[in-house]
Structure formats: structure tokens, C-alpha cells
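3.2 Worked example (two chains)
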Amino acid sequence: MAVPLAWQRERWTTPDGDFIDVDHIVPPGAVAMLVLFHGLEGSSASHYAQAFAAEAQRRGWALAVPHFRGCSGEPNRAPRAYHSGDFEEIAWMLARVAQRWPDWPRVAVGVSLGGNALLRWLQEAGAGAAATVQAAAAISAPLDLAAAGAAIDRGLNRVLYARMFLRTMRRKARQKWACFPGLFDLERALSARTLRAFDDAFTAPLHGFRGVEDYWQRASSRPHLHAVRVPTLVLNARNDPFVPGESLPDAAEAGPYVQLWQPALGGHVGFAEPCAPWDLRGDVAALPQRVMPWLAEAAGWPGR
């Protein structure tokens, strides 16, 4: 039986007077630090965060999961939320992690939205990123936000997933409006039936973009992969229902510091492997068990 995860939570005050809640697990004698950035409406309770936490404990790594604003169970205070290209927030979070736990070398993993935001930080930071993390991985990141947005807003994805995301995001829009009336068009946000419409009404104006096209273009990481200067794994399954295979980059686009893994199967943040011949669901522990050894080797951590 798996040992229950013993998360500890800290609240950090941001430069604009808001807060970030950080869940972490620091085992005795930790030898390294993994920072994990969650996906859209995710948290430390997400299945992938749980899987990475379990593998980190097995390896003796500390793990920190900074929550994007509004994702830790309590509305944030500032007139902003979070978005797929939030590299400035990633920069602050990583700097704060380095200040809080300065004694361990660090690697970072971003999942889905968090993966794209992490890539945008790596691109903006360039060679300077190596002072903060020694290696990174982006898992199921929507590298081309226009392609990903179109995929999630059509067919079965729209019925099953877009509605689920929009349910919680519309609730947050109401909360934000109650604190900051006039900041965006509440009626448009609440009537949105696609992520595109919601991003145009809420996410874009809240974060200084001219509209959804401006947001998706400027926040997409695919056009800037050559700017990455830290060893980085970009893992996308070609059957990901949210990230179309035709929107994925090739090796020529990736640049010398980026390694692409594009398996045929894996879905969106799945990559589960069966534990037995009759196991149809599979075990998501396979994901960190593949990614973390890659990170250790890329970071130059023999034996970790």
C-alpha cells in the first residue's frame, strides 16, 4: 500500500500584494529539488502531481508545487489570474523557490498549461535560466495555443472537457468581478461556451492582451523553442486530444537544447502503462519514472 503524501503548505506574498500557496514535501536528507507547475485548474491534488510526488520521495528529492493564483482553494486578491504564457509569474516562483531552498540543485517540470508557461520562461530567460534550474521538462504542453484551443472546443472534447473547465472558470470570473467590477465583460465571460470565447472575454483583458488572438499568439511557446538554453525535454503524445499531432514541432524547430519525445500513444498527461495483462487503465507512475531519470542525467546528477 502506498504511503500517504504528507504535503506541507506555505503562503508566499507576491510583489503585487497577492499570495501564492506552495505545497511541498521535503524528505530527510533530500539531495535535489523538483519544482512542478500544474495545468489548467490543476493543483497538488492532480493525478500527475501525486505521481511525481511519490517518485520524488522514492528518489529522495524534495518537491514543490506552487499553485497558480486561484488554484489552491481560495480566490486570489489581485486583479489578475493566470494564463498559458505567464512567464513572469514562473520567474518569480522559481526565484522564490531558490531563495527558500538554496542548498539543493533544481529541475522544473511543467504540465499542460504549466508546461507552456515554463517553456516561455525558459525562452525569455535564455542562458540566465541555468542559474535557477539545471534541466526542465514540459509535458503535454499546448505549444501552439490556437491549435490546442480549436481542438478542445470541438467535438467530444467540447462536450466532456471544455464544459468542465468553463464551469470552474466562470465561477472564478464571478468572484473576480465582485472584487473588481468593470475589469472585464462579465456577461460575455459567463455566456462563453468555448475556451476561445472565455479567453477573449476574461483571460486576455485581465492580463493585458488585446484579445484572444493576441493572447494565443504571444503566449505560444512553439515559435521560440530555439531560444531555450537549458536542457529541456518536450513530451507530447501524438494522440493527445487537446494538442493535435500536426501542431507539434520537429527537430529543426526545437534547437540544440530541446529534446522532443513524441510517442504515438499517451493521451493528455497520461502515458500510463499496464501493471498486468488485464490492466486496461494503466499506472500513471510510468510518467515520472521516465521523465525524472532524464532530468537527472540532463542536469548532470549521477546517481540521483
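3.2.1 Second chain
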Amino acid sequence: MDVHFLTWAITIAGIIGLLFFDFFSHVRTPHEPTIRESAIWSCVYIGIAILFGVGVGVLTNWTFGGEYFAGYITEKALSVDNLFVFLIIMTSFAVPRIYQQKVLLVGIAIALLSRGLFIAAGVVIIENFSWVFYLFGILLFWLAYSQVKGGHGDDEKDEADSKLIRALRRVIPTSKDYDGQKLTTKVDGKRLFTPLFLVMVAIGLTDVLFALDSIPAIFGLTQEAYIVFTANAFSLLGLRQLYFLISGLLERLVYLAQGLAVILAFIGVKLLFHALHVNEVPFINGGEPITWVPEIPIWFSLGFIVLTIAVATVASLAKTRRDARAKAGVTATTDRDEH
């Protein structure tokens, strides 16, 4: 895929423009978004991402278009999973709802920058060292195992976030109370950072860590730098609105971690198959490519990812509904016994 420098420049300028628009039209004035506002703008950003993918398919070919959509859906699902951690951090810092938009937008900007750097490094490494596909595949298997083992909201994850917060507080002199949406304040004549600045740093650091699973995952679907970058960028744009739209739904997605584990493991298999096709490792088949290993087509990858997310979502909602009914039944029985 030959992408002209001007195309790169226009795309990056457009993404930066959307971030500035988001800030000046929604975030600059502190407020808690309504469900209606969040739903409308979530649909707008998803619509922009879909139109971009259609444009890629029409202007190049639908192989690249399919790679974009597979990457976008995977990155979006991983971003939703990351919202659990954002929710924990926001709760730990007791961030007022009216300021959470600003924190999330700054986190998204940091994520775009860090992932851009990771992608640039990844492209250079892949072009010069094809054996890195083996490492990416093994990493995705480990991440899939971690998803199944960890899940959401467990004590280990909470403890990890608490350690991060304590470490940041030791390094960054921070006031105890918020001062509106200011990042610094004066306490007893001493200039200190506010907890709002601290939570932005925490969100930014976690975004950098999230890149460690998102970048290998999308490189397993496409090695085109332009598609990798744009799929990541459009999955992050609109994440702020999505946070407020589904924050009440997050705890109901009990099988999302398992669904993501299946997707990461699947992409890990796809990566290893590709690694064998371009093999240059001397102790594997004498350093020669292994051509009999099947290449998984992008249409199959896209269908598998969509189906897995759909099954995980439906199963999660069905389970939480059953649990709620069972709990209501136990409560009703207890009330009758008491009377």
C-alpha cells in the first residue's frame, strides 16, 4: 500500500482537528454529558470511522478495507476493555463527573502520540526482522491468558492501580483537594499539582501500557502502517463519549475479558502462521519459509472478531439478567420469611 506523504499529512491534520473540535465544543466548559449527547457523538465518531474504512476500500481495494475494519473493531473492543481501568482510576481519585471529560481527552491525546511512536518503531522492526512476528504471536498468547486469568475489577488489578497512584503521589507533590479544573494550586503559599493533574498522568501511563497489547494485535491483522495508525486513531476518537454512554453497562460485560482473550489468541495464531510463511529463523525449516501452513484470509478474521464480540456481549447481558432475577427472587423469599 503506497501512501503519499500528503495523504499522511491530511490524515494526521484531520485527526488533530477532531481532537481540537472535541475540546472546544464539549470539554472546554466543564459539564457531565447526558446520555443523549454521548449517544449522538458516539454515533458520529463511529460513522466517521466507517466512512473512512469505506473510502479505504473504494480508493485502494477491499483487502485493505477489510484489514482496516478488522483492526478498527479489534482496537475498539480493546479500548472498551480499557475503560474498566479508567473507571477504577477515576473512582480512586474521586474525580468529579464534570471534569472527567477533560481527563479522558488528555488521555486519548497521550495514547495517540504514544501509539504513533510504537507503530513507527514496529514498522521499522518488522521490515528488518521478520522473526518479530514470532515474538508478537507469543506475546498475544500471554495477553490472552492474562485476560482470562485477570478478568475485570478483581483485587489484583485494584491493587496494581493503587500502587501506581501511591507511586505517583510520592514523586509528584499533590494537593489533597481539587481546585476546579486547574492543574496546579497554591496551598500555604506553596505551588502544588492538583489531583486532576495526577489522574491525567495516571491515565496517560496506563494508555502507554495498553499499547503493548493493541499494537501487536493489529500488526497481526495488517502490516500496513497507514491502516494500523488510522484504525488505532479512530478507535480512540469517540472513546470519551463512549465512556459516559456505557459506564453503567461496563460492569454487566462480565464475559468481555474472555471474548478478548479468544480474539487475541486467534490473532496470535494468525501471526504465527504468517511468521512461518516469511520464516528466516535458521533453526526452523533451515531458515526457509513454510508455505504449506495456511494463511488466514482477512474476511475470515473480520467475521471471527465480530462474532466473538457479539457472543461475549449477548452472553454477558444474559448472565447479568439471570443473576439479577435470581437475586430478586432470593430477596423476595427472605422478605416473606421475615414477615
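3.3 Remarks
The longest helix spans residues 298-338.
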